[in-house]
Amino acid sequence: MSMLTPPGMGGQYRITGDKYPRMRRPRGRRRLAFLVVVTVAAIGLIGWGTLQLIDVFTGGGDKAAAAGPKADCASKASPSATASSASAASVAAKALPKPGQITVNVFNATPRSGLAKETADELKKRGFRIGDVGNATGAYDKKVDGAGILLGAKGAAQAALPVLNTQLSGAQLKTDGRAKADQVDLIIGTGFKNLTAKEDADKALAVLAQPRPTPSTTKNSC
Fold this sequence. Notes:
Blueprint: H1 27-58, H2 60-76, H3 79-94, E1 103-108, H4 115-125, E2 129-135, E3 148-153, H5 160-165, E4 172-176, E5 183-188, H6 198-209
Parallel strand pairs: 1-2, 1-5, 3-4
Antiparallel strand pairs: 3-5
């Protein structure tokens, strides 16, 4: 008789072998849990797909994406900062002297005689005041290869020199240690042909006098 056979039982009820019978869980509960999970997942996918279709057909996602950054950038724009930049640009434009406020010394550094006087006379017609007229000093005589050199004080670098430069394109701008910012030198070089045509020079002056926006020092993520 096997150890698994209860006392008093034998015959056809006798249990033989040396292993316990396996106890299996009911399969019904496992199937039910699986069906619940699958159903919930399917409902979620259907809902997400429906929302995507609504956005595609209504264009809601594109409009929000397009309007969002613009709205943020518009809200970040500061009226006071814009007004301040415009005011600073206007002051910078007003700081430029007019031709009548600039005295030009005209010096000839070329072998061509009479060139300094001819140039000075033309500048005078255009409204500039004329100072000394003659040959260039030894430091520049026959040593200026380009159209010419515009020489002035450091304070003239953003004032008188740019104004005079509208009359002679291609000239080199240089500064020295002189005190008067309203008195500059035009040293005519061997590459000089003529002053800039008056019509073009007037246009250049007009552009130079226009208010220029001051670059912002703050970074905008937009």
